[in-house]
Amino acid sequence: MNQCIERIVTFRELAHHEHQCPRTKTVRRGDKWYCWQHDPVARLGRRAVAHTRAEAEATEMSNAAALRQLKLSEFDNLVRVAKDALEALLLTGYYPAARAHLKAVLDDIAARRAKLKE
Ligand SMILES: [Zn+2]
Q1: Which has the closest alpha carbon to 2: 46, 34, 37, 42?
Q2: CB–CB of 44/38 below 8 Å?
Q3: pLDDT at 33 over 90
Q4: Which helix (H) or strand (E) holds 20?
Q5: How far apart (Å, rounded) are the C-alpha atoms in residues 58 and 37?
Q6: What distance lies between CA 93 and its chain's CA centroid?
Q7: What is the C-alpha to C-alpha distance for residues 58 and 56, in angstroms, rounded to an integer?
Q8: Ligand 1 geometric centre to CA of 47 (Å)
Q9: Residue 24 gets which letter from DSSP?
Q10: Is 25 in contact with 2 (CB distance < 8 Å)?
Q11: How far is the CA of 1 from the centre of ligand 1 (A)?
């Protein structure tokens, strides 16, 4: 026998089919021979690579999400500070130009925050 020992199971037309891998045996593990694809050691290696890649992607995604959240909370803080300042100015009833400027700053922050949320 020159074939890989792996049994391949497929499902076709609602039936379960099983056959031996048609590839040539190339790797011996214990007393069994496998092809390059079904070599259990190579399989473990591929699985480990896929796992590492998935983990890296998840970390990248959560980093991006965390950064976004940080930016959002920074904007929230800016809005709070600007609102407090605006309210203080409104209480004094003075500085209409400063008030208009603060309002513009608030609008700008709100617009940038909305963009960030998209
Ligand atoms: Zn095989």
Answers
A1: 34
A2: no
A3: yes
A4: strand 15-20
A5: 27
A6: 49
A7: 5
A8: 17
A9: B
A10: yes
A11: 13
For the record, the structure tokens of 108 come out as: 């700008």
Compute the distance from residue 30 Cα to the ligand 1 centre, in Å: 16
Q: Map tokens 């890649």 to a residue.
A: 53
One-letter amino acid of 59: T
pLDDT digit string, tens, across residues 4-19: 999 988 887 778 888 9
Q: Tokens representing 18?
A: 């099983």
- In this prediction, residues 18-35 reach a mean pLDDT of 93
In the numeric block, the tokens 């076709």 are attached to 12
The whole model's pTM is what?
Answer: 0.49
CA of 51 to the centre of ligand 1 (A): 22
What Rg do the C-alpha atoms of the chain give, in angstroms?
32
Exposed, middle or buried, 10 (CB in 10 Å: 0-12/13-18/19+)?
A: exposed
Which residues make beta-bridge pairs with 16? 11
Residue length of the chain: 118
